[in-house]
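ugh ok fine here u go
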Amino acid sequence: MALYEHVYLARQDISPQQVETLTAQFKGIITSLGGTVGKTEYWGVKSLAYRIKKNRKAHFTLLNIDAPPAAITELERQQGINEDILRVLTLRVDELEEGPSAQLRKRDDDDRGGERRGGGGGSRGDRSERRPRRDEGRLEGDME
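structure:
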C-alpha cells in the first residue's frame, strides 16, 4: 500500500465538532477499503489566500493515510460530493512524518509569544556599526 498526506479544507461556518464528524466519516471510508489512517491533525480555522466558494476562512485538517489508490480515489470522490468541503490536497509520500507537523509546530511557536528562532530586535554584536550615509549631515538647502 502507498503512503499519503491528505489535507482538506472545510467551510468556516461549520463547528469544530462537525469537522471531527467529517474526519471520522472519511476515516471510515479509508478503513472500509483496506487502508489505515495514522495521524490526524486539526489545524483550526485559518485565513485563505483568496476566496473559495465565497469563503475567506476554512477549517484545515491533515490525515496521514496508508491505503491503496482505490481508497484515495473514493475518499476524494466523497469529498467532492460534500458541500462542506472546499478543497482537497493529497500527496503521495515516501514516508509519513512522525510527531507534530510543521503547521502545528508553527502554532506552538506562535502561542509562546516572541520566542522565535532568529527573532529580532536584539543587539548585533557580530556586526560592525553602519557607516554614515552620504547625505547625512547636510541641510536641505545644501542638496546639489
